Sequence to fold (349 residues):
Amino acid sequence: MTTGPTVAVPPRGEADQRALVALSDGDLLTRFFQAKEDAAFSTLVARHGPLVFGVCRRILPDANDAEDAFQATFLVLVRKGATLREPERLSNWLYGVATRTARKVRSKAALRIKSERQAGEMPTKPAVSQMTYDDLQAVLDEEISQLPEKYALPLVLCYLEGKTNAQAAAQLGWPEGSISRRLSRARELLRSRLAKRGMAMSVALIAAVFARPAAVAVSKELLASTTRAATLVAEGADLHDVVSPTVAKTTQDILASMSAASKFAVPTVVIVASVLLILTTGVWQLAPAAAHAASNMFHFTRGGGVHGSMRPGSAGQATDVAGTASVSDGACGAAACTTTTPAPCGTAP
Fold:
């Protein structure tokens, strides 16, 4: 972890600090990106830092790697935070970015040590019975990040950040009963996903893992250095000038992957919309043709008679193939009218 150059920050009064703490995530992001208020970002780091560092620490056994992933996560927020459409869901967004970032750092660390170990000496994954709570929580972190947002959000807010159902409901604008139902469904989904990984865990065991605090205390030094780096990057400083090469490269990799995902998503939406437009246009174009064909097949007269369409007979005659009509208004009745020249029903040819 690189602390970067020292930046003088004027002290704030306790009243000002309490006012910032009371603000929502959206308000703090607005103050940071629009009013350039560094203390607003510092409040965000202090608020969500324990959640982010908890994820990083569980996925990355090495403390230095965890601190690198922590800094990279909040630097990604500096680059992407101004465009978040739903800032009230920042907890879940940071949780996902932290998970992805920590896994990226872990994969790079594995490559570094791969050449130092033989394949047979690589440590094997522990069995479920041998896993520690931290091991199980790390697996749950990976699985939660794969859940639909409507199920991941309550888990992150209630189990990982320690909010009550009422607090989570108020933050998301959901009914409190909806939070309870989605938490229950999320636990079932996790149990099913873990079973596919060969980890048969009951909902009770999953709840027991969640019962332990998932947030990890963040040192004042890490909070301060992350805030300083974020402030400098927001002002236009190059990443490599304020953080270590590892943090800078990890941040760039995560940003690139997010940009690639968004570029892929937009053409996909356009393709789907184009297909729907083509299908809709085709239906509208075929509908008049189908109606015209139906009108040629059946001839409707005022009063209810259906005389059918005419087709050539075997001897060059025209044959009425409908044959059945109402008796009213002089219709033909049940018998088919077979004539060489069309004539009113009931008259001799």
User: Anything to note?
Assistant: DSSP finds 13 helices and three strands in the chain. Confidence is low (pLDDT under 50) at residues 4-10, 264-270, 297-343, 345-349. The CA atoms of residues 151 and 186 lie 5 Å apart. Residues 245-297 form the longest helix (53 residues).
